[in-house]
Amino acid sequence: MRTPILAGNWKMNTNLASATELVNAMKNDLSQLAANGNVHVVLCPPFPYLARVNELTRGTGIQVGAQNMYYELKGAFTGEVAPAMLVDFAEYVIIGHSERRQIFHESDEVVNKKIHAALANDLKPIVCCGEALETYENGETDVWVRGQIHAAMQGLSADQVRGLVIAYEPIWAIGTGKAATGAGANAVIGISIRGALADLYGEDVAQSVRVQYGGSVTAKNIDEFIVQPDIDGALVGGASLKADEFIAICRAGLKKNS
Ligand code: PEP
Predict the structure, then answer these.
(1) What tens digit of pLDDT does each residue of 213-251 get?
(2) Whose CA is closest to atom 7 on ligand 1?
(3) 3-state DSSP call for residue 135?
(4) What are phi and psi of 220, to 5 degrees?
């Protein structure tokens, strides 16, 4: 059984005061949800607030994730953050978010290097993939997503892959208010993502990896995704900045295995 995982990606939002306020507003409800172990809840604040969020959530069962990292371990890389710098504050790290790929030109090769570096430093990667609108409209989603998965998995062992979380995030659904349908997202995750993993590592590994859907998830539409057999949770952007909304989304995770 795959434990559902709901993660909030705050992106480049909040300040120290509002990050603190947000965690305090969600802490009690989220810790109750996380306490029984049936749902994993992860908060991914910007780098400067990782330490604060980690401190505020310590002992609650709520987990913390970073939104990015570099793959080198140390040295002359001004402005970058190394994996070992994150482990004191974060358990997870988002890798290959479409905003990193599009705005900061992160290639499949860089994404793959980051996954290796994260795993080597005891961080659990949340690996993002997903197609642009044009690819979707041309009916090329399967080829595109399979290609991203093959590239991201280069050189990883089956055991390493079992420890990954993958987030299927169609770019046309991120921040647009136009979410995919539950059935549509389930098909891409089941056929393209688990299909690619099965080709590479066998069906057993493909079925063991947790795969989230991400893209305009809200408290209103989460049920549509969480009931799908191949969807194990959500990576949530905008709605994770509203305490009540994110609590409701995480609570929906309980419906997964009930
Ligand atoms: C995201 O940040 O990965 C995301 C899916 O954003 P949103 O939920 O706002 O679409």
Answers:
(1) 999 999 999 999 999 999 999 999 999 999 999 999 999
(2) 237
(3) helix
(4) -75, -40
Query: pLDDT at residue 258 above 70?
Result: no
Domains and CATH numbers, the chain: 5-255 (3.20.20.70)
Owner of token pair 């029984």: 36
Residue in 13, 126, 169 to alter for ligand 1 test, most ligand atoms within 8 A of Cβ: 169
| Per-residue pLDDT reduced to its tens digit, 146-189 | 999 999 999 999 999 999 999 999 999 999 999 999 999 999 99
Cβ distance 218 to 224 under 8 Å?
no
Q: Known catalytic residue: 116?
A: no
| Whether the CB of 65 sits within 6 Å of ligand 1 | no
Catalytic residue among 99, 106, 131, 169: 169
Is residue 73 left, alpha or beta, with left meaning phi > 0 and alpha meaning psi from -120 to 50?
Answer: alpha
Total Cβ atoms within 10 A of residue 105: 8
CB count in 10 Å sphere of residue 215: 26
Ligand 1 atom nearest to 179, measured from its CA: 10
Phi, psi of 92 (to 5 degrees): -115, 160
Q: Which atom of ligand 1 is nearest to the CA of 169?
A: 5
**CA of residue 213 to ligand 1 center, whole Å:** 10
66 Cβ closer than 6 Å to some ligand 1 atom: no
97 is catalytic: yes
Q: How far apart are CA 89 and CA 188, in angstroms?
A: 33
